[in-house]
Design goal:
Length: 499
């Protein structure tokens, strides 16, 4: 690191009276991987959007390569060598790898209207060869795994001369092998003096790949540390002002012997094998495994998104038919999907709409919708869920990730579900929001709701659940009682170790 390539000085940003950034400073050394961490709503996204030209700061200064600059918009940011690679990738699945890499920058032949595809495929192959990984530039992007898609995104940024990469939760959805390969590529880029800002809620990744880490809390700086000189507990305390011991407290209520959900030989489309299990009153049952184990497929099948092929579902002793989400909802099922943005929310609509859409009958007066009742139901639910800001007319897309997730859960809890299925409920959210969601889940179970927690986070399952089922390729590998559940044992079983 030979001096700073970027300095953001005393950056302030206010949204409608809410101070999103308060005199924030951030510096980035050449060839550095610098982690930016903090709770959802801490100001990370706002700071990054100012750097990439999505938002304009109210006051402050950006110094790039020693010169004060104004970044007017995302195109201007790209011209200045700044490229962002977000969780939601910008690739077009129906196009080839090469076409994606040169999208908007296509080489033309002597006939101006003709794209020189031969040159494009040749150059794309050279770019990809630098990553020491086999990717055919003629392949459709839809045929690639998530890890290789991320590499294509990086190659696309580097072809237009990006020297500063923003990586936002880059390993989300990747397998362990893909993450290892991705980290090797990141290290190689660092050796070539590419500078990176690394945003992640997985703090173990920060320790594994980053040089320095800066913490934001409530829009303010909470400190910058050399990764080699700081520990996990210190970072968590900086992020949330709480000790690790206060996070995800274990259950105190004991599940009863009353079986409220019985699943026998159940198999739906996209499931590899039939599954059987029972869920008891007051119980949180974890269903876990590595990515691809079949957790999400089970959840989608139980909620009627996928067609049932065989088996029976019994709720409160009665066999029920779940052939659609509507029928699942009528049978007192609620489902929080893994992808909250595409499956759980109407992003462009207000929080009020999202919180009440599943229980619209509660706010009808005869055949008419009562706006007053709807506002009250939404506000009561938002307060219960501790959604911040408490603005029912704000579009859901403007909430932080943690508050979006609380909105998805709140949508169902404005009713009175008997069974709550949660698929990766803490994916992409920070430690503080995780604590709130864990406490909420435990509170629901204490009140008699049966909870199915589908999660690939083994520590999450071992901390929160009363019992755990481990899946491998859609089959039940093992079932563990509370006293037998540990992070190490779950991981061992999920990888095919001892039963």
């Amino acid at each position: 690191m030979d001096g700073n390539v970027l300095e953001m000085k005393k950056i302030n940003k206010n949204f409608g009276g809410i101070q999103a950034l308060d005199n924030v400073n951030f510096a980035l050394g050449e060839g550095e991987i610098h982690a930016l961490i903090g709770e959802n709503g801490a100001g990370k996204s706002t700071l990054v959007k100012i750097l990439t030209g999505v938002h304009q700061m109210d006051s402050g200064e950006i110094v790039l390569d020693g010169e004060s600059t104004i970044i007017q918009n995302p195109i201007d940011a790209r011209r200045k060598g700044i490229a962002a690679i977000y969780q939601e990738m910008s690739l077009i699945d129906s196009l080839s790898v090469a076409e994606n890499i040169f999208l908007g920058n296509e080489p033309t032949s002597k006939f101006v209207s003709w794209v020189d595809r031969k040159w494009m495929f040749r150059e794309a192959k050279k770019e990809l060869a630098a990553f020491n990984i086999e990717i055919d530039p003629r392949m459709k992007v839809s045929e690639l795994g998530l890890g290789k898609k991320k590499i294509v995104e990086i190659a696309k940024a580097l072809t237009i001369g990006a020297k500063l990469l923003l990586l936002d939760e880059p390993t989300t959805g990747m397998s362990s092998a893909e993450i290892d390969t991705f980290f090797e590529i990141i290290k190689e880029l660092r050796s070539k003096r590419i500078t990176m800002i690394y945003i992640s809620h997985h703090l173990e990744e920060v320790f594994k790949i980053c040089d320095r880490v800066s913490v934001l809390r409530d829009g303010r700086n909470e400190g910058t540390h050399q990764v080699a000189n700081v520990d996990l507990k210190t970072l968590v305390q900086s992020m949330i002002g709480k000790d690790l011991d206060g996070i995800a407290r274990q259950r105190t209520t004991v599940p009863t012997d009353e079986v409220i959900l019985s699943v026998k030989g159940f198999k739906a489309e996209n499931m590899n094998e039939p599954i059987s299990f029972e869920l008891r009153k007051n119980e949180i049952l974890g269903i876990t495994g590595i990515i691809g184990a079949g957790k999400s497929e089970l959840g989608l099948g139980l909620f009627g998104y996928s067609k049932k092929l065989s088996g029976e579902i019994h709720f409160m002793g009665q066999e029920i038919s779940v052939d659609s989400p509507n029928s699942a909802f009528r049978n007192s099922f609620a489902f929080v999907p893994e992808d909250r943005k595409s499956q759980g929310l109407f992003l462009s609509l207000p929080v009020e709409h999202n919180l009440t859409v599943s229980n619209i009958k509660k706010v009808l007066v005869g055949p008419f919708l009562s706006a007053r009742s709807r506002r009250k139901l939404a506000l009561d639910t938002a307060k219960r869920m501790k959604i911040v800001p408490l603005n029912m007319q704000m579009a859901a897309q403007n909430l932080s990730g943690g508050n979006q997730q609380k909105t998805v859960i709140g949508k169902w809890l404005s009713g009175s579900p008997g069974i709550l299925i949660l698929d990766e409920p803490t994916r992409g959210i920070d430690v503080g929001a995780k604590e709130e969601i864990f406490n909420l889940i435990q509170g629901l179970a204490d009140k008699g709701v049966g909870v199915l927690l589908l999660s690939s986070e083994f520590k999450e399952v071992s901390t929160v659940c009363d019992r755990a089922i481990v899946l491998i390729k859609g089959s039940v590998r093992a079932e563990l009682r509370r006293e037998d559940v540990s992070t190490e044992r779950l991981l061992t079983l999920a990888l095919g170790g001892e039963t």
